[in-house]
Amino acid sequence: MNAQFDVTIIGGGTTGLYTAFYCGMRDMKTKIIEYKSDLGGKVSFFYPEKKIYDVGGFYGVRGEDLVESVEKQALSVQPEIVTGEQIASIEKVEDGSFILTTTAGARHFSKTVIVASGLGTFDMEGVDLPEVKPMLLIFITLFNTSNNMKGKRLQ
Fold first, then answer.
1. Residue 95, phi then psi, degrees to nearest 5
2. Are the C-beta atoms of 88 and 121 separated by less than 8 Å?
3. Rounded to an integer, what distance in angstroms lies between the CA atom of residue 9 and that of residue 23?
4. Can you point out the beta strands (E) in 4-59?
5. 3-state DSSP assignment of residue 52
6. What integer is the mean pLDDT of 112-130?
7. Is pLDDT above 60 for 125?
8. Average pLDDT rounded to a whole number, residues 119-137
9. Are 52 and 64 in contact (CB under 8 A)?
C-alpha cells in the first residue's frame, strides 16, 4: 500500500512550495503534486525576469530568483515531490482521509489536502492571424532569450 501523508499539496508553484515548507517545519509528512514537469508555476513561466513587488519580505524580486529561493526553502524540509501528474479526483474516505487519483490512475493517500494551484494549469493558445504570427515569433524569442539578445538589433 502507498504511504499516507499528513499533507498533500496540489500545485508546485511558489505558494505550494511555501506551504510545503510551512508544513515541514511543523514535522508534517508532506507531498507536493505538480501537473507540469517543473516547479515554480506561473511565476517561472510568465515572470522569470520581471521584478515582482507584492511578495512579503522582498521589495522587487525577480521571478526566477523568487522561485529558486522558495524551492530551496521547501526542499530543506524534504517533502516528497511528484511532477508530471494531474489530479483527476479526490475521494474522502470513511476515516476522514483522502485518496487522490491522477489522470494516469496513480493513487496518493493523505490526511489533508491543500489546493495551491492558483487559477489552475495554463496553456498557451495560438493566434490565428497570419499577419501577426511573425511578430509573435520575435516576441517569444525575445521573451525566452532576452539575455542572449542584449545589444542586438532586430529587423
1. -80, 5
2. no
3. 10
4. 4-10, 30-34, 51-52
5. strand
6. 69
7. no
8. 55
9. no
Question: What is the C-alpha to C-alpha distance for residues 39 and 115, in angstroms, rounded to an integer?
Answer: 15
Cβ within 8 Å of residue 97, ≥6 positions away: 4, 109, 110, 111
pLDDT at position 25 is 95
90-94, Cβ contacts within 8 angstroms, sequence gap of 24 or more: none
For residue 120, what is its C-alpha cell?
Answer: 489552475
For 64-108, give the DSSP string.
HHHHHHHHHHHHTT--EEEES--EEEEEE-TTS-EEEEETTS-EE
Residue 145: pLDDT above 50? no
Grid cell of 148 as nine digits: 542572449
Q: Supply 95's cell numbers.
A: 476515516
Residue listed under C-alpha cell 496553456? 123
How high is the mean pLDDT of the chain?
83
The DSSP H or E segment spanning 61 is strand 61-62
Structural element, H or E, at residue 113: strand 107-115
Beta pairing, strands 87-92 & 98-102: antiparallel
Enter the pTM of the model: 0.77
| Antiparallel, parallel or unpaired: β 4-10 and 30-34 | parallel
Q: What is the pLDDT of residues 13-59, one digit of tens each?
A: 999 999 999 999 999 999 999 999 999 998 988 888 889 888 888 88
